[in-house]
């Protein structure tokens, strides 16, 4: 027997004795909580779009992310230019996408595109990483990204400033909705990485005092178009 | 009704006034007291130390004697938890399983009996002091008795209750107090400090064993804290 | 006494007398409790969420074979190499084998308690590899040549002043004690390590069976970088980490965060499904997942205590445990400290050496009350005590409790206790406070209660004898007196 078989055999042997179920026995067909049930237990998420937007803004702000709802796509360019000037961006990184292409086109600084591989040292030198996303989650103020939507694994975490460009229709009420979306989008062929980003990188490891920008970005800016 | 009293050894020997107060209160409310003198321990020390056979040996006479009791009132949250929560576990799979469950269903910690079973909270007591309440852990977490003692205290004239910032253990824990005295003492120090922070004159509790520990520490350290059992507060005039 | 119990008592003696340390821990955990309570209250029904989590973990653990096989086959389908390790030693050999094969020199690690369990860092360093912990807290304790003080807050015992001195000494930094400045020092040092590391090494919070993904929860982004930059990634996880479905994370991620650090959700919650996939722009070329048993199957075989494998290692029970708060993590001498450590360690590492942890508890139940997956830890401690005694009881203990049962079952004998006790108390001052004092363990730090002049039973008997109706007791000075 190899190690796998030995461990599995030990597990099966152990499980021949039943352990008591922690609660009321469940009726057949009621094997697990439905997303609707989970939704009723978690912190409340709003019903209407406007309320969800307000909730996302409130959560993102308390997480110390910067959130801007923009009316026009042109406004995106001017906002990004303002950021470039304020933070003196010399070089940025991004990936191909409808919104990212629109955003970086006007910046006038060198852009490292991560789509088909890149040099880590080059990415490390970039002042900002501009990505799209899969969803925004109102309940938690999170940005949901995956390899495909955010230019790989490192783009959203290595540069000191992560700028997210999100679409109106990407706003979701809560975590159960986010997992439903993932299931629909990827079926059972999930990508290499899916990440819920909830505020800029942080640590409390020194005297439980909050410090932003531990290893990941110190700043997280979300533009909502 | 006839109320059967269970008075554990430490209340009997060290804090008899607690038991006397309970008798006084129950008799004043018109109940008849049945006191089985021969029952002086629920077996918890042996049970908590892992000696379940010995615990059963002590618990068996308790089960037998209380079999026909109408209601059992226990003068300690800890002994109450033993009979209400742990007897059914201790006797699970034995001939006495049903008896243990039967007893569990009719035994009451003293404050719970008054406030929940009898629905009486105002006993006409007067206690002109600022107090804080210490929840014995067994009463609090095994029996869920956060409210009954507070409901009773709320009706005591002149009493001001100031809560401590945490529901933290006083560090007694039976044999633990002498097996790991340094930890038990440190826990008691935290408790005393939190009680002192409230500015209360008295720490009130429904468990004499906790009070014994807290008083022991406070006295040794020359702190001014005084302790008093809930039953004694309720008979104060 | 076994060596671990001596070490535990010696360390407890030291740490309980270290008032500064106790105050540091108390303050940190009070801050945690405030945010935890706020965020638990934000749930619409926290108790229902907890109950559901307990049931889902039950389902996972009680069908562990099925879910593990599903998890592994999905992982393998996307090119991940899965290794099974029955023991810590085998896991170390597997990991060393991968590192040697890659001709690697440097390893960057994100936080993993399972690697502490198998003493991986020592093994790698013995072989001459450079191992760097990237989680800030872990980095600090590694630099300070310590083990993590707490499974979630590894450096909570150190003040910023101590960390400043450590960084200035070990990293030739010139930092003040400002946490932000100290964090920047660590960030700068570790960035270089990331870019140069040959191997990334992570643990896992959940192994999601239906998706074949590993979920990692963190705040700093160090795990994200560890799993993104090096060419080879190794992930070590215990077999109990399984969750049946990806959507279960909708419940478990917020529960883990609220209980773990008090946050509504930690900063990064990331699920990994494989090494770099075709069409993906980055990620490791190879991903090795090492599944560790290390006697977890023995705990699994104990149906009564099987649910202690439901633990999601949030550390909530440590944070509320008055024992942990006062003695601290290192005193335990175990990888997993606090209530859950006391429950599982004797099962995983032997009863006779580790049973003392189950006895070192006042059974206050704060752990049971706080556990987000409803493991009844306090009652598990009782079960452990019973099992330890059944396996091997001490002669003194056995005789002691036989005598206890003998006396308490004989009311006439019990009646002698009061007079004997009063006599004893008269003699007590002769030895009180000295080592000859049989009650020294109590009297060293606590005043002794006095046996009342009249016990309740004496009172009751007199009352019945004289058949007089009892009037309310008169107030007397001493509170024991009647």
SSE arrangement:
The complex is a heterotrimer of chains A (225), B (237) and C (482).
Chain A: H1 3-14, H2 35-41, H3 49-62, E1 66-69, H4 73-87, E2 92-94, H5 98-105, E3 111-113, H6 120-124, E4 128-131, E5 135-137, E6 142-146, E7 161-166, E8 171-172, H7 175-186, E9 193-197, E10 202-203, E11 211-212, E12 219-224
Helix pairs in contact in A: 2-7, 4-5
Chain B: E1 2-6, H1 9-13, H2 16-28, E2 32-34, H3 44-48, H4 52-66, E3 71-74, H5 77-90, H6 97-106, E4 107-109, H7 110-117, E5 130-134, H8 137-142, H9 147-154, E6 160-161, H10 176-179, H11 181-197, E7 202-205, H12 208-220, E8 226-229, H13 230-234
Parallel strand pairs in B: 1-2, 1-3, 3-4, 5-6, 5-7, 7-8
Helix pairs in contact in B: 5-6, 7-9, 11-12
Chain C: H1 3-17, H2 19-41, H3 46-62, H4 64-77, E1 81-85, H5 88-101, E2 106-109, H6 113-117, H7 120-126, E3 130-133, H8 136-143, H9 160-170, H10 179-196, E4 199-202, E5 206-208, E6 213-218, H11 222-226, E7 232-238, E8 242-243, H12 249-260, E9 268-272, E10 286-292, H13 296-301, H14 316-320, H15 322-327, H16 329-332, H17 338-349, H18 351-354, H19 356-359, H20 366-370, H21 377-391, H22 395-408, H23 411-415, H24 417-427, H25 440-443, H26 456-466
Parallel strand pairs in C: 1-10, 2-3, 2-4, 4-7, 5-8, 7-10
Antiparallel strand pairs in C: 5-6, 6-9
Helix pairs in contact in C: 9-10, 17-21
Provide an overview of this structure.
The complex is a heterotrimer of chains A (225), B (237) and C (482). Chain A has one domain: Rossmann fold. Chain A contains 7 helices and 12 strands. Chain A has helices at residues 3-14, 35-41, 49-62, 73-87, 98-105, 120-124, 175-186; strands at 66-69, 92-94, 111-113, 128-131, 135-137, 142-146, 161-166, 171-172, 193-197, 202-203, 211-212, 219-224. In chain A, the strands form 3 sheets. Chain A has a 6-stranded parallel beta sheet, sandwiched between helices. Chain B has 2 domains: 2-117, Rossmann fold; 130-234, Rossmann fold (3-Layer(aba) Sandwich). By secondary structure, chain B is α/β, with parallel strands linked by helices. Chain B has helices spanning 9-13, 16-28, 44-48, 52-66, 77-90, 97-106, 110-117, 137-142, 147-154, 176-179, 181-197, 208-220, 230-234; strands at residues 2-6, 32-34, 71-74, 107-109, 130-134, 160-161, 202-205, 226-229. Chain B contains 13 helices and 8 strands. Chain B has a 4-stranded parallel beta sheet, with helices on both faces. Chain B has a 4-stranded parallel beta sheet with strand order 6-5-7-8, with helices on both faces. In chain B, helix 12 links the parallel strand 7 (202-205) and strand 8. With 482 residues, chain C is α/β, with parallel strands linked by helices. Among the domains of chain C are: 60-294, 3-Layer(aba) Sandwich (Rossmann fold); 395-451, no CATH class. Chain C is built from 26 helices and 10 strands. A 6-stranded parallel beta sheet of chain C has the order 1-10-7-4-2-3, sandwiched between helices. In chain C, helix 9 packs across helix 10. Residues 474-482 of chain C have low confidence and may be disordered. Chains in contact: A-C, B-C. Strand 9 of chain A pairs antiparallel with strand 9 (268-272) of chain C, so a sheet runs across the interface.
């Amino acid at each position: 027997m190899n190690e796998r078989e030995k461990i599995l055999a030990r597990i099966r042997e152990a499980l021949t004795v039943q352990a008591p179920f922690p609660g009321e026995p469940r009726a057949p067909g009621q094997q697990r909580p439905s997303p609707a049930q989970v939704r009723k237990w978690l912190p409340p998420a709003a019903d209407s779009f406007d309320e969800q937007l307000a909730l996302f803004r409130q959560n993102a702000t308390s997480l110390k992310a910067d959130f801007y709802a923009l009316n026009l796509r042109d406004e995106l360019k001017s906002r990004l230019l303002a950021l470039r000037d304020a933070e003196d961006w010399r070089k940025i990184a991004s990936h191909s996408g409808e919104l990212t292409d629109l955003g970086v086109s006007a910046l006038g600084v060198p852009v490292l595109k991560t789509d088909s591989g890149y040099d880590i040292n080059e990415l490390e030198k970039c002042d900002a990483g501009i990505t799209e996303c899969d969803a925004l989650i109102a309940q938690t103020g999170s940005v949901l990204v995956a390899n495909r939507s955010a230019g790989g694994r490192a783009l959203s975490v290595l540069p000191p400033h992560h700028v997210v460009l999100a679409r109106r229709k990407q706003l979701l009420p809560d975590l159960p909705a986010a997992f439903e979306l993932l299931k629909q989008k990827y079926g059972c062929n999930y990508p290499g990485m899916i990440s819920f980003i909830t505020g800029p990188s942080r640590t409390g490891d020194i005297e439980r005092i909050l410090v932003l920008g531990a290893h990941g970005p110190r700043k997280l800016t979300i533009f909502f178009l | 009704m006839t109320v059967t009293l269970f008075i554990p050894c430490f209340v009997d020997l060290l804090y008899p006034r607690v038991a006397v107060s309970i008798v006084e209160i129950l008799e004043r409310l018109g109940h008849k007291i049945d006191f089985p003198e021969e029952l002086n321990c629920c077996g918890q020390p042996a049970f908590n130390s892992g000696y379940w056979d010995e615990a059963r040996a002590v618990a068996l006479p308790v089960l037998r004697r209380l079999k026909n009791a109408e209601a059992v009132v226990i003068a300690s949250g800890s002994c109450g938890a033993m009979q209400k929560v742990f007897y059914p576990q201790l006797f699970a799979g034995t001939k006495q399983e049903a008896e243990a469950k039967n007893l569990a269903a009719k035994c009451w910690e003293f404050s719970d009996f008054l406030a929940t079973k009898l629905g009486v909270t105002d006993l006409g007591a007067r206690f002109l002091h600022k107090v804080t309440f210490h929840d014995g852990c067994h009463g609090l977490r095994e029996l869920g008795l956060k409210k009954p003692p507070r409901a009773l205290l709320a009706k005591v004239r002149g009493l001001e209750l100031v809560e401590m910032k945490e529901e933290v253990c006083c560090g007694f824990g039976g044999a633990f107090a002498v097996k790991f005295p340094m930890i038990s003492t440190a826990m008691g120090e935290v408790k005393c400090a939190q009680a002192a922070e409230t500015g209360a004159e008295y720490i009130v509790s429904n468990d004499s064993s906790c009070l014994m520990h807290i008083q022991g520490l406070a006295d040794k350290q020359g702190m001014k804290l005084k302790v008093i059992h809930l039953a004694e507060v309720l008979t104060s005039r | 006494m076994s060596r671990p119990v001596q070490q535990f008592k010696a360390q407890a003696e030291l740490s309980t007398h270290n008032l500064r340390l106790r105050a540091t821990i108390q303050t940190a955990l009070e801050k945690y409790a405030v945010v935890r309570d706020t965020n638990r209250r934000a749930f619409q029904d926290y108790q229902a969420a907890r109950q559901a989590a307990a049931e889902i973990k039950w389902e996972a653990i009680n069908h562990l074979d099925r879910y593990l096989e599903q998890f592994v086959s999905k992982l393998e389908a996307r090119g991940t190499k899965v290794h099974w390790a029955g023991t810590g030693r085998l896991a170390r050999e597997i990991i060393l084998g991968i590192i040697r094969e890659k001709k690697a020199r440097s390893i960057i690690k994100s936080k993993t308690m399972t690697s502490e369990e198998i003493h991986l860092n020592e093994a790698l360093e013995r072989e001459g590899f450079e191992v760097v912990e990237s989680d800030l807290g872990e980095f600090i304790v590694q630099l300070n040549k310590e083990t993590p003080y707490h499974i979630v807050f590894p450096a909570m015992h150190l003040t910023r002043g101590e960390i400043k001195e450590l960084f200035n000494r070990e990293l030739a930094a010139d930092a003040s004690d400002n946490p932000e400045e100290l964090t920047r020092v660590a960030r700068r040092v570790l960035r270089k390590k990331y870019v140069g590391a040959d191997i990334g090494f992570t643990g896992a919070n959940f192994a999601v069976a239906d998706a074949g993904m590993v979920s990692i929860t963190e705040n700093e982004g160090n795990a994200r970088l560890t799993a993104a930059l090096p060419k080879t990634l190794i992930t070590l996880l215990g077999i109990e980490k399984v969750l049946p479905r990806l959507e279960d994370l909708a419940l478990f991620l917020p529960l883990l965060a609220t209980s773990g650090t008090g946050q509504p959700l930690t900063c990064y919650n990331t699920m990994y499904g494989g090494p770099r996939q075709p069409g993906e722009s980055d990620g490791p070329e190879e991903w090795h997942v090492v599944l560790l048993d290390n006697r977890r199957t023995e705990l699994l075989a104990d149906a009564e205590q099987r649910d202690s494998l439901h633990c999601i290692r949030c550390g909530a029970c440590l944070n509320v445990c008055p024992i942990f708060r006062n003695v601290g993590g290192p005193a335990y001498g175990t990888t997993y400290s606090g209530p859950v450590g006391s429950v599982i360690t004797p099962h995983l590492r032997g009863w006779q050496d580790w049973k003392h942890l189950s006895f070192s508890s006042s059974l206050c139940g704060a752990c049971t009350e706080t556990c987000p997956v409803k493991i009844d830890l306090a009652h598990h401690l009782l079960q452990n005590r019973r099992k330890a005694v059944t396996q091997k009881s001490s002669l003194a203990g056995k005789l002691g409790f036989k005598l206890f049962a003998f006396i308490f079952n004989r009311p006439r004998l019990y009646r002698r206790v009061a007079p004997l006790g009063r006599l004893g108390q008269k003699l007590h001052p002769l030895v009180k406070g000295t080592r000859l004092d049989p009650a020294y363990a109590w009297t060293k730090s606590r005043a002794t209660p006095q046996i009342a002049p009249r016990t309740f039973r004496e009172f009751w008997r007199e009352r019945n004898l004289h058949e007089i109706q009892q009037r309310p007791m008169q107030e007397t000075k001493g509170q024991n007196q009647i």
